Amino acid sequence: MTWRVLVHNDAINSFAAVAYALVRVLSMPVEHAAAAARQAYESGVAEIGAYTEREPAEAITARLQAFGLNASIEVAA
Question: Which residues form the Adaptor protein ClpS core domain (predicted)?
Answer without folding.
Answer: 2-67
